[in-house]
Amino acid sequence: MTDTCEETLGVGLLCEGQHDPGTPPAGLRRAPSGVDGLTTEHLIINMGPQHPSTHGVLRMLIEVDGEEIVAAEVSVGYLHRGIEKLAEHRRYDAIGTLMDRGDYVSGMMGEHAFAMAAEKLMEVEVPRKAHWLRSLASELNRLASHLVWYGTFGLDTGGMGQFLYAMRDREALLDILEALSGQRMMFNYIRPGGVVADLPLGLEEKIRTFLSTFDMYLEEHDQLLGGNEIFQSRVKGIGVIDRGIAQCFGLTGANLRAAGVDFDVRKARPYAAYQELDFEVPLGTKGDAWDRYMVRMEEMRQSARMIAQLIDGMPEGPHTAKVPRVIRPNAGEVYASVESSRGETGIHLVSDGTEHPYRMHYRGPSLYAAQALEEILPGHLIADVVMIIGSTDIMLGELDR
Amino acid sequence: MSPIAVGALKVFAAIGLMLGNGVVLIYMLRKVLGRLHLRHGPMEMGPAGMFQTLMDVVKLLTKEDITPRAVDKWLFRLAPLMVFVPSLMAYAALPYSDSWRITSLDSGLLYTFAVLSLVPIGILMAGWASANKWSLLGGMRAAAQQIAYEVPLLLSVLPIVMLVGSANLGTIVEAQQGTFLAVLPRWFIMNPLFWPTFVLYVIASLVESNQTPFDMSEGESEIVAGFATEYSAMKFGLLFLSEFSNGFIVSALGVALFFGGWSLPWIPASWYAAAPIIGPAIFIIKTYIGIFFMMWIRGTFPRVRIDQMMQLGWMRLIPISLAWIVFSGIVIKVWS
C-alpha cells in the first residue's frame, strides 16, 4: 500500500525520514511565486476553530498566496471529550449514550456499531425484528443526517434558503425518531441485544405520510441547490479526491464512492436487515465535490426506498433478545462496523470479562476525510476551502470523540 | 429662507431618508427572507415584530464600542465614515420628483457613480486598519470587485445617456413620460434596445452594492465577516447602514433609468400638481420593489467565487457593454 501511495501522492507521505531535514516537505511552504518573478509574501491564516464554516470546531492553518491556498494543515481535538476512555469506566448498556455524542447527527449508527461489537463478544442472537428496527432507525437517521449536510453545504456556498427547507424535512424525521426512541438526537435506542422498544402505535402511518411527500421534497432540494448554475460552477471540479487518494487515506462512505470505489459496508459485510433489502449503491466517477453531492443526494433516495421496504416487510416477534441486567461478555477482542452517514463507523472492543470494556476504539470516518483535506486543499481558493470541507461532510464530534 | 437654511434642510432630509430607509429595509429584509425561508422573521417586538429594528438601533447605540489594541486607530475610526458619507452623498442627485430634488446636476448620473466608487476606499481602509487577516481579505476583495465592475456599470447605462442626450437624472426621467399603444408606459425598459443594458446594469449594480450573489467582501461563510469583522456597536451600524443605503441607491437609479422614475403614466398630470407627495411616493415604492427583487436573489442564490466574478466582469460584461454602446449608437443615429 505504501508504494502505491507514494506513487499516487507524489510524496513519501507515509514514510518518515525520507525528507531532507533542511528542505520543507513537498507541498508545504512553497517558495514565494508571483507574476514575472515578483515575489509576494504568503499569509498564514488561522481558520477556525471559531469560523462560521468549519462545521463545528475544525481548525486549519492555511498558507495563502493572495487567495490561493499553498499549504494547509488540519488541527483537530477541540471537541475531544474522551469518549474512548469514558467507555472503559461504563457498563456495556451505558455506552450507547456515549456513542450518540460521538457522531451526534447520526447517533443511531454509532449505537448500532457498538451494539454489534458487544453482541459479538456476548455471542447473543439478535431477533429478526430487532434487525429490521435497527435498519429502519439507521435509515431514518441517515436521511436526517444527510439533510443537515445538504443544508450546511448550501450555507457554505452562501445560499440560505435551502438550509431551512432541509430543516423542515429534518424536523419531520426527528419527530419520527423521537416517537421511536423518546429523544430527538441522543437516542440510546439500539442497545446490545436488540432495540429498546417496539414500533409505537401509529408510527408506521406517520412514516408513510412522511415518505409520501419526501420524494417530491427531495427533488425540490435537488433543484434548489444542484439545479443552480452558480452552485454547479462552484462545486464542479473542485476538491478532487480520486481513487488513489481516497484509498491511501482510508476514506469510506460517500467520499470514497464518489471516487468510483464500490465499497459500502451494507453491501460488503451485510448486517442487520440490509441483506434482505433492495437498494443500490450510487457511485461517482471523478471524485470532485459535485460527485460527492450527487452521491449523497442519490443515497437519500435509496434510503427513502429502504424505509418503505422496511415498513412494508416489518416482521413480527420480540424486539430484543434476553440480555442480563449487567452484561459481562466473554474475554476477547472484536471489531464490528456499520455504514454510517459518513462512512464506515467501527468499534474495536477488547473485553477482559468484567462488566466494563478493557478498551474501546472508535473508528470514525471523519478523521480520515479530514486528513485528506491537507492533500487536496493546496491550489484552491479560500472560497473553495469551505466548499470542500462541506462536501466531505466531516463531523467534528466523531472526529475528536 | 436663506439658501444656506434650505441647503441644511435638504441635507437633513437626505440623512432622514437614509436612516428611515435603513430601519424600514432591515425590517423588510427580515420579513422577506423569513417568508422565503418558511419562517416568520421577527414577531415579538410590536405588531408583527415591527419595532425589532428600532430595538436593534437602540442596542447598537448602547453597545460597547470595542477598538482592538492592534488596530490602526485613526483609520479604524475613519473607515466607517468613509463608507457612510459617500453613500449619503449619493442621495443628492436622485430625482425624487420633478420638483422635489436635493440638487439637479447635469452630470447627476456620473456624480452618483463617482461618489459610490468612493465606498470601497472606506472598505479597504476598514480591512487594512482592522489588523485582522479576514478583514484584509475582505477589503482587498472589495477593491478588486469595485475596480472590475465600476467600468461595466457606467458603460452599461451609456446608451440611455446617448438617447436622452443628458446625464441629468431628472431629464432622463422626463424623457420617459407618456404612453404608447394607449396603455403601455413609455419607460426605457419597454424599449428592446435597452434590454441588454438593463441586464448589464442589474448584474453590475448587484456587485456595486455588494449584494448576494456578489457579496464577496463580507462573504460570511468564507471570510467570517470580511471588512466588518472587528467592528462593533455603532461603527458596525454605520457600515451596515451604508450597505442598505447603497442597495437603495442602485435600485433608485435603476428606477430612474429604466422604470420612469417618479412618473406613472396612468395618473393625470394635474394630480402631481395638486399633491406633490405623489411623485416621491411613487419613486420610493418603485425603488422598494427593486429592492424586493434584490432580497429575493439574496434569499435564494449561492455566492459566486471571486475568480469567476472577476472573469465575468473583465471578460464578459466590459466587452459586451462596449459592443452594445457601438450598436445602440448606430441604431440611435439611424433612427433619428
CATH T-level topology of chain A: Cytochrome-c3 Hydrogenase, chain B
Helix content of chain B: 55-70%
How would you sum up the global shape of chain A? globular
Indicate the CATH class of chain A: Mainly Alpha
The CATH architecture of chain A can be given as Orthogonal Bundle
Estimate nothing, just give the exact number of structural domains of chain A. 1
Distance between the termini of chain A: 28 Å
What structural category arises from helix and sheet content of chain B? mainly alpha
Instruction: Give the overall shape of chain B, derived from the CA principal axes.
Output: globular
Main pleated sheet of chain A? 3 strands, antiparallel
* Cα Rg of chain B: 20 Å
What is the terminal separation of chain B in angstroms? Answer: 45 Å
Number of helices of chain A: 15
Which oligomerization state do the chains in this entry correspond to? heterodimer
Output the CATH homologous superfamily of chain A: Cytochrome-c3 Hydrogenase, chain B
Work out the strand percent of chain B.
Answer: under 5%
Strand fraction of chain A: 5-15%
- Biggest chain contact: A-B, 31 and 29 residues
Overall radius of gyration of chain A: 22 Å
Order of helix and strand elements from N to C terminus of chain A: HEEEHHHHHEEHHHHHHEEEHHH
Overall mean pLDDT of chain B stands at 84
Explain the layout of strands and helices.
The complex is a heterodimer of chains A (401) and B (336).
Chain A: H1 2-9, E1 43-47, E2 59-65, E3 68-75, H2 83-87, H3 96-100, H4 107-122, H5 128-157, H6 161-181, E4 190-191, E5 194-195, H7 203-226, H8 229-235, H9 243-248, H10 254-257, H11 265-268, H12 289-312, E6 332-340, E7 343-351, E8 357-363, H13 365-376, H14 382-392, H15 396-400
Helix pairs in contact in A: 4-5, 5-6, 5-12, 5-14, 6-7, 7-12, 12-14
Chain B: H1 3-36, H2 52-62, H3 73-89, H4 108-116, H5 119-129, H6 133-164, H7 169-174, E1 179-180, E2 184-185, H8 195-208, H9 220-223, H10 233-258, H11 269-274, H12 278-300, H13 306-335
Antiparallel strand pairs in B: 1-2
Helix pairs in contact in B: 1-2, 1-10, 1-12, 2-10, 3-5, 3-10, 5-6, 6-8, 6-13, 8-10, 8-13, 10-12
